[in-house]
Design a protein that fits this description.
Beta-galactosidase, Chain A, domain 5; nine-stranded antiparallel sheet; TIM Barrel; mainly beta; about 575 residues; Immunoglobulin-like
Length: about 575
């Protein structure tokens, strides 16, 4: 795989039965006797807007019994220095601790250790020890939990695959959230309870000292490796339409000379409080493709949605929705927002589907679904894997969780079609910011708008491996009930093409997926979350796309619904068409 995709290589540390990987500032895949018991432990420093300061590793000191990262923060006004250390404390015992000292006053929403538990624990019985010594019986949630499954945590215990695991937390009161809401492959135990006021202010010279003590006993259940990866595909409803988000980049749209497949629609988000929303609409409409219009209402002038609806006259609008930017229904299409939109569309004489949901992640749809009005023509939400972490491991691990999110989204929709998008690497907005988003200063698009005004660009947009990831993502998300998948932007640094119109490798994947749209889908599960297959029964016969996100070549055997099979050797980070 390319360096652009892999980033810094991981460093493995072993001590007796323990092993872990150092990935940048993260102690990842903490394993006992070769079996992962914790997905990760890392120290995080987040500012008042929940943005994460970079934790730079200055040097690493290791011995047979301890591994120490000497770290400092960069960015967001944070200036903390100290260590993150893993140390063996005895047979089956490991402690991870952090000791960070703030060199200056800093307003933070969270500073300290974060523990990630693997999603394979779904449904596993869990003992929760509280700060007063009481013990509660619970479980790791099977379905994605909209709210925290555990509060006031001083310790956790569970048994899984032959191992008994016990965690003890010191330095603060911890709680847990289900990070699968954001397509993270984990449950997260973190400190500073969200019920406490934030931000919290660290004084100059103040230290944050926290530790997690991990005790493991037993023998892991042996796993039998398979030389050939077998996937069984079944035929279902039509493969979803493949759409694209309008470019938010600055400047003029480039010309394109190739004949890549045309997307089914262009998704455009129009913030009615900005000066250049009309210019954004004009640029999106220049494609002459059907538009999926998402209005962000102006809190100071909600009636301005009438101007937005009037601007849609004569345009091919496939669907429209509206969201509040602030307030109790923040980023959600509640009854009032949809009523305003319906009235505005009626007055403008615009006939289109009215959809609703969450402007942001599945998280808000999961938590706020009770706010959605009845009678919607569809449910919408966006998806981004790089919210809590920017690692490629996070990107790949999101794939099986996308399957869970899509399935649960269809359940919430109760028969209405689900339109997922924009699907992007990094968020197209900071939905947890406590300060107002940046606004364009001009009526035109010389600065761009929306995502172009925040830190939303990822260099892996141009990586060849993103094509394979996109095929795998579509295989995960294309469950019955999902009608549309909108991937990336038309052009620009978050796009399918560069600002000069030159195609990025991911365009090939989106074009291949587009050719499947409308045909009976051939879909199945991934055996390990690394190899995925998706296809359709077209006029030319069965077409199957197979993607491999593993670090090594995989031999794949695909069983089709008619009993026939197809085989392939798929290189790491690539997809093939069978």
């Amino acid at each position: 795989m390319t360096d652009l995709w892999n980033g810094e290589p991981a460093r493995t540390w072993r001590s007796g039965a323990w092993s872990l990987e150092v990935r940048a500032d993260e102690l990842a895949d903490i394993a006992f006797e070769g079996r992962t018991v914790l997905r990760s432990v890392r120290a995080v420093v987040r500012d008042r807007n929940w943005d994460t300061a970079s934790l730079v590793v200055d040097r690493i000191a290791s011995s047979d019994l301890a591994l120490t990262l000497h770290v400092h923060t960069e960015g967001l006004g944070a200036d903390l220095r100290g260590i993150v250390r893993a140390e063996v404390r005895g047979p089956g015992r490991l402690r991870v601790l952090t000791d960070l000292e703030s060199q200056a006053e800093f307003a933070t929403n969270r500073t300290g250790l974060v523990v990630l538990h693997p999603p394979t624990l779904a449904g596993t019985a869990l003992l929760v020890r509280h700060s007063d010594g009481a013990v509660a019986h619970s479980r790791f949630p099977q379905h994605i939990s909209p709210h925290q499954p555990a509060f006031d945590i001083a310790g956790l215990s569970w048994s899984h695959e032959g191992l008994d695991v016990d965690l003890r937390f010191e330095g603060d009161v911890f709680e847990m959230e289900d990070q699968r809401n954001w397509t993270d492959a984990s449950y997260k135990t973190y400190s500073r309870p969200l019920a406490l006021p934030f931000p919290d202010t660290l004084a100059a010279g103040e230290r944050v000292v926290q530790s997690v003590d991990l005790a493991v006993s037993g023998k892991p259940v042996p796993l039998a490796p398979a030389e050939v990866t077998r996937l069984r595909l079944t035929q279902g409803p039509a493969f979803p339409a493949i759409a694209v988000a309008a470019s938010t980049a600055a400047g003029r749209a480039p010309s394109a000379d190739d004949d890549a497949a045309t997307p089914a629609a262009v998704l455009v988000e129009l913030d009615l409080a900005t000066r250049n929303w009309r210019a954004a609409l004009d640029r999106a409409a220049a494609s002459a493709l059907p538009l999926d219009v998402r209005f962000v209402l102006d809190d100071s002038d909600p009636e301005s949605v009438h101007d937005g609806a009037a601007a849609l006259r004569g345009l091919p609008v496939a669907r429209a929705s509206a969201f509040w930017p602030t307030g109790p229904a923040r980023h959600v299409s509640d009854l009032e927002a949809i009523a305003l939109l319906r009235h505005a569309l009626d007055e403008a004489g615009v006939r289109t589907e009215v959809v609703g949901g969450a402007r942001s992640h599945f998280t808000e749809l999961n938590r706020e679904q009770h706010r959605l009005p009845r009678g919607l023509d569809g449910i919408v939400f966006s998806s981004t894997p790089l919210f809590h972490s920017l690692s490629t491991a996070q990107l790949v691990e999101a794939l099986p969780i996308q399957r869970l999110v899509a399935t649960q989204g269809v359940h919430i929709a109760r028969g209405a079609p689900v339109h997922i998008g924009p699907i992007s690497l990094r968020p197209h907005l900071n939905d947890v910011a406590t300060t107002a988003p940046p606004m364009p200063a001009h009526d035109d698009l010389r600065e761009g708008y929306g995502s172009a005004l925040i830190d939303a660009v990822d260099e892996r947009q141009q990586a060849p491996e993103l094509a394979a990831w996109t095929v795998a993502s579509a295989a995960a998300l294309a469950v019955p009930g999902v009608a549309t998948l909108a991937y990336f932007e038309e052009w620009g640094p978050r796009g399918l093409r560069g600002a000069d119109g030159a195609p990025y490798p991911v365009l090939g994947a989106v074009s291949a997926l587009r050719s499947l749209s409308g045909h009976p889908a051939l879909a199945g599960d991934s055996p390990d979350g690394l190899v995925w297959a998706i296809g359709a029964r077209t006029d030319e016969g069965a077409v199957v796309l197979v993607a491999n996100l593993d670090r090594s070549t995989r031999a794949v055997d695909i069983e089709l619904p008619d009993g026939s099979s197809r085989t392939a050797e798929v290189a790491p980070g690539e997809f093939v068409r069978l």
